[in-house]
Design a protein that fits this description.
The complex is a heterodimer of chains A (about 240) and B (about 800). Chain A is built from eight helices and ten strands. Chain A has about 240 residues and is of the alpha/beta class. Chain A has one domain: P-loop containing nucleotide triphosphate hydrolases (Rossmann fold, 3-Layer(aba) Sandwich). Chain A is globular. Chain B is of the alpha+beta class and about 800 residues long. Among the domains of chain B are: about 1-50 and about 250-375, no CATH class; about 60-225, no CATH class; about 500-645, no CATH class. In chain B, the strands form four sheets. Chain B has an eight-stranded mixed β-sheet, with helices on both faces. The two termini of chain B are about 35 Å apart. Classes of the chains: A alpha/beta (about 240), B alpha+beta (about 800). The interface of A and B includes residues 70, 92, 112, 114 and 130 of A. The structure holds adenosine-5'-diphosphate and magnesium ion (MG).
Chain lengths: ~240, ~800
């Protein structure tokens, strides 16, 4: 609750400030072979309503960066500020609140709850954030082509359909920032194009920022900006 | 609140999709609770009966005056005390047999009985007259009348041929208790002029020892209010054994719960991570998981309690019969449940569920939101786990050893058993892993190699269930060995002990003398041997003193555990006594030590010249020469005799005796029926043990089933590649069954030595502590074969459904393993 108060105040104050500011972020993992430095000083900004593609080779640290921005993990150094709130160094409970209220995440593996129906999966985050909006839920179900599948369980869906549920779940909460980690990685090219088109359309309606990790330069080109992660820092491709 | 609701609902949605998992969880909890609470219901029922019996005068909290030296207070002492202005009331207690059951008979004096006791109500009503005036009344609980199968006003006779005053229904009297006027009691129990004790009225000024000495000299002693009384004390160990069994079954049940919860945790890992990723606070998630367990525990616990009630009701007749046979304790056959029982049963279910889920909950608490790369391959991870477990096992065994060396008492005995069982169970996976890798070494074929390696990998998933199986099997071997050993020893001992052909009780001492004299004149009777008896207490423990004649019947057949040279001569000359094993253990007596036996009005300092086994007797026993018995106890009961004759003439002789003496002959039995009666009592006890034993095995079978079910889902990923490489599903299913049979067989083989250790603990530690006698240790290899077969059948039954499922898995499901490679 405290998070909401603080951020709503800063909302008004920070009209000019970017939605997301990442500065000097470093992260390394402990491995049996010693410390593995993955991010070595990443700087990035993203405005509200802007979409950004994050490219990079496999193992370059794209997911790591996305996880740090999403508050799933903490950086070793540097600062991440989302919507005027400092994400880095936040205690766990506050980070959980931030995730459910301000951020939508779409994972490559979909990560749906297998025991919930499509409709319940889609509504899940919005419900626990106390922000369930029946009209918005209906619209998402319809636009994502899931209306006829509402009572099914994830295991009864194809990969493309599951990915649409995951996107719907992230958007149902009307996040300030939508993060997607290779959302089309498991889909064929045509389905990938279609799902991304849908997502972009819906994102425009909510006015949130969008950060997408992808391998595909073709898909990246459909976004406003593109950056590339190489040797632990961001470069313009 | 909304948030909490959705989190909880999402967690619960898992169970809807996995009903079998839910079923094993609930069944596990219900069974554990049922067995535990069933045993507790039996214990409570029995204790409530003892308490009601002991509290019949509101005696709790009332001091009493007893004889300082003998077992009885003379009536004169009572009169003297009353004259001196003491507010005391006389009581005479004893037990009588009516038909097949024994009852406690209490004689009271209604005019002086302290207020607050049930019979004190008589003094105000008009019933007082009826109670006092001939033929008097016998007050008894409605249950007792029901059991006797008589209506009010009936006058059933005891086995000594004494008729009770007319029965009157009285709801305040404990079941199994008969309350009569003190005069009537003295007549029925054959103790004229004698009292068990004098109750001191709680309302009056409390006397002190000095005041008592001033009136009665040193003949009487003041005794503080006793707790529970003899019955509670004598039966304590019986109930402790029942409790131990209930606890074992409870723990085996918790293995099922643990396996089901572990499975649910594994299956929900992704969901839990996703929930955390989209912002569910950890604390709420934990609270929801705990709430889920509490809900399951309460629901399944309540079902378990109901089942426990029925288990208790089914076992109650046998338990009541063995308590009656062993201790003369009367337990009401109508199961009455106290509210406390519900509370404690549900509490146990809750505690058990939380204990079984502790590990999974701790894992959730430490669950990283992002899945991290596994630091170790499964084989190494398993090795680390096994090593840790091994260390804890060694710790348990060391605790057991310490308890054995340094501890004493029944509790220490159970600590030894618990330590050995737990230590051995924890070592099981280590042993299995070793044996399986040895098997892997010998395998030549690729499929055989895969068989051994894969069995070993499955071990961590199955080990809990296998441990439960090991515990159940070894409990079977252990208890079976003890019971069989007892049966063998007991039968042999009965043969020696009951070597006379006929036993009889006369209605009175005079009748006895007359019948004995007549028998001595019969040519077919070779000996008429008195078996006279006096009762006393040594350090508060009830002890029977038997007087017998010096005769070959005893010298040759009555086997002693140990004796001084010329023991029988010393007994004959009154220079020594024989002491039962349990009395010797309890009083710390050895050969040559002196036993102070309180007689009617003095103390007999008698040297112990021999020790003999007295299996199953909760009281102490001393054997002396009959002449010395009557010298020390002029009031000894002189009504029992045994007689020697040719076995084939026994039946005819009994007929002649009955015709000749009629009512003067209170009871006459031949050797065979007496043996049968004695054996029957023990069969009842072992029927209870056997039933609990079987239930425990069934529970462990369910545990195995639950774990297998848990594994089949996870097994798919391991089986799919083998299937893809060209092993048909049928073959895979056969191999799965084979694996389980191998594991069960090894477990059963290991259960045998563990069971023998357990049996030894029961025989050499627990039995000695609980009952005061030690059994010789026998082994019964045929039992082991049965156990092995049981283990295999259990494993086969547990495997059938899960493996059949696997065999029927559609190729597309097997293929999905490759599609969703994670
Ligand atoms: N939890 C972890 N522990 C150790 N190393 C990790 C962990 N997560 C990622 N890595 C390593 O960090 C590097 C970057 O990983 P990741 O961010 O997943 O790359 P990308 O998403 O760009 O493919 C990889 O070399 C990976 O092996
Ligand atoms: Mg990645």
């Amino acid at each position: 609750m405290t998070v909401i108060d603080r951020t709503e105040r800063s909302d008004r104050a920070a009209d000019a400030a970017p939605l997301l500011r990442v500065s000097g972020v470093r992260k390394s993992y402990a491995t049996p072979q010693g410390a593995l430095a993955v991010l070595k000083g990443v700087d990035l900004t993203l405005a509200a309503g802007e979409s950004l593609a994050l490219l990079g080779e496999s193992g370059s640290g794209k997911s790591t960066l996305l996880h740090l921005i999403g508050g799933l993990d903490d950086a070793d150094a540097g600062e991440i500020v989302l919507d005027g709130v400092r994400v880095t160094g936040m205690p766990d409970a506050e980070r959980a609140a931030l995730r459910r209220e301000k951020i939508g995440i779409v994972f490559q593996q979909f990560n749906l709850v297998p025991s919930l129906t499509v409709a319940d999966n889609l509504a899940f985050q919005a419900r626990i954030a106390g922000r369930f909006d029946a009209a918005w839920q209906d619209e998402l179900m319809r636009r994502l082509g899931l209306a006829a599948l509402a009572g099914r369980y994830p295991e009864q869906l194809s990969g493309g359909q599951q990915q649409r549920v995951a996107i719907g779940r992230a958007l149902a909460v009307k996040p300030r920032l939508l993060l997607a980690d290779e959302p089309t990685g498991n889909l064929d090219a045509a389905t990938g194009d279609e799902v991304l088109g849908l997502a972009l359309d819906l994102i425009r309606r909510t006015g949130c920022g969008f950060l997408m990790v992808t391998h595909s330069t073709r898909l990246a080109a459909r976004l406003d900006r593109q950056v590339m992660l190489a040797s632990g820092v961001l470069v313009t491709p | 609140m909304r948030q909490a609701y959705w989190i909880f609902a999402t967690l619960l949605s898992h169970w809807r999709r996995h009903p079998l998992n839910l079923a094993t969880l609930m069944v596990g909890l219900a069974i554990a609770t049922a067995l535990w609470s069933g045993v507790q219901a039996l214990n409570q029922q029995a204790r409530a009966s003892y308490d009601r019996a002991a509290a019949v005068f509101g005696e709790a909290g009332l001091a009493s005056i007893v004889s300082a030296r003998g077992a009885f207070v003379a009536q004169d002492a009572y009169v003297a005390l009353r004259r001196a202005g003491w507010k005391v009331s006389p009581v005479l207690e004893g037990s009588v047999r009516i038909g097949a059951a024994s009852y406690r008979l209490i004689g009271v004096e209604p005019l002086t009985v302290p207020r607050g006791s049930p019979v004190s109500g008589l003094a105000t009503g008009g019933e007082l007259e009826a109670f006092l005036r001939a033929p008097g009344q016998t007050l008894a609980a409605p249950e007792t009348l029901g059991e006797l199968g008589v209506a009010e006003g009936a006058t059933p006779s005891t086995d000594k041929g004494k008729a009770l005053p007319p029965l009157v229904r009285d709801g305040t009297v404990a079941p199994g208790l008969l309350v009569v006027d003190i005069g009537a009691a003295q007549d029925i129990l054959g103790r004229p002029g004698q009292l068990s004790r004098l109750i001191v009225d709680g309302d009056a000024a409390q006397p002190d020892a000095a005041a008592l000495a001033a009136v009665a000299g040193d003949a009487l002693r003041l005794e503080a209010a006793a707790e529970g009384g003899d019955l509670a004390r004598l039966t304590d160990s019986f109930h402790l054994n029942l409790t131990a069994f209930g606890l074992l079954a409870f723990i085996v049940g918790l293995f099922i719960v643990h396996a089901s919860i572990g499975l649910a945790f594994e299956q929900r890992l992704g969901t839990l991570r996703t929930m955390r990723a989209v912002g569910v606070p950890l604390r709420l998630l934990m609270a929801a998981l705990v709430a889920e367990m509490v809900l399951a525990a309460l629901l399944a616990g309540a079902v378990g309690m109901v089942c426990g009630y029925f288990i208790a009701a089914a076992l109650l007749p046998d338990v009541a019969a063995s308590l009656d046979g062993l201790y003369g304790a009367h337990v009401s056959g109508q199961l009455a449940i106290a509210p406390r029982w519900w509370a404690s049963g549900l509490g146990m279910a809750l505690a058990g569920a939380l204990a079984a889920s502790a590990l999974s909950l701790a894992k959730v608490a430490r669950l990283p939101v992002l899945s991290v790369a596994k630091p170790l391959a499964w084989r190494e991870a398993q090795q680390v786990q096994l090593r840790r477990q091994g260390a804890f096992a060694v710790f348990c065994l060391v605790v057991a050893l310490l308890a054995y060396v340094a501890g004493h008492g029944l509790i220490a005995g159970f600590v030894v058993i618990a330590g050995v069982l737990l230590g051995a169970a924890l070592l099981l996976p280590l042993a299995l892993s070793g044996l399986l890798s040895a098997g892997e070494g010998t395998a030549k074929q690729a499929l055989a190699q895969w068989f051994w390696a894969d069995t070993r990998q499955q071990l961590s998933g199955l080990s809990l269930a296998l441990m439960a199986l090991l515990l159940a099997l070894s409990a079977n071997v252990g208890v079976g060995t003890m019971v069989e050993g007892f049966r063998k020893t007991f039968t042999g001992w009965l043969d020696e002990r009951l070597n006379a052909e006929i036993y009889f009780d006369a209605a009175s001492a005079a009748d006895g003398a007359r019948i004995a004299a007549w028998l001595a004149r019969q040519p077919q009777v070779s000996a008429v041997l008195p078996v006279w008896r006096a009762e006393t207490r040594i350090k508060g423990w009830p002890v029977d003193v038997y007087g017998t004649r010096d005769h070959a019947t005893y010298r040759v057949h009555f086997s002693l555990l140990s004796e001084l040279p010329g023991a029988w001569d010393k007994v004959r000359d009154g220079e020594g006594v024989l002491v039962s094993e349990q009395l010797a253990r309890r009083m710390g007596l050895g050969l040559g030590s002196t036993l102070a036996i309180p007689t009617g009005d003095a103390v007999w300092e008698a040297p112990v010249v021999g020790l003999y086994p007295d299996y199953g007797n909760p009281k102490g026993q001393v054997r002396v020469n009959v002449d010395h018995l009557v010298r020390h106890w002029p009031d000894a009961r002189r009504t029992s005799y045994s007689l020697r004759t040719a076995p084939e003439q026994a039946e005819a002789l009994i007929g002649t005796m009955q015709a000749q003496f009629g009512a003067s002959l209170a009871r006459v039995v031949d050797q065979a029926s007496l043996k049968a009666a004695s054996t029957r009592i023990f069969e009842k006890t072992f029927a209870v043990t056997g039933a609990l034993n079987t239930l425990t095995l069934v529970v462990s079978g369910i545990a195995l089933f639950a774990s297998l079910l848990a594994l089949t889902g996870l097994r798919l990923a391991q089986l799919a590649p083998v299937w893809a490489l060209g092993v048909p599903r049928r073959r895979l299913a056969d191999l799965e069954i084979g694996k389980l049979l191998v594991l069960a067989a090894i477990t059963a083989v290991l259960a045998v030595p563990l069971g023998l250790v357990l049996a030894w603990c029961l025989v050499a530690i627990v039995n000695v502590q609980a009952f005061g006698w030690r059994l010789p240790f026998h082994v019964f290899p045929l039992q082991w074969v049965v156990i092995l077969a049981l283990a295999l059948v259990t494993a086969l039954l547990a495997a059938v459904i899960p493996v059949a499922r696997l065999g029927r898995t559609a190729p597309q499901d097997l293929l999905r393993v490759f599609a969703n490679e994670r």
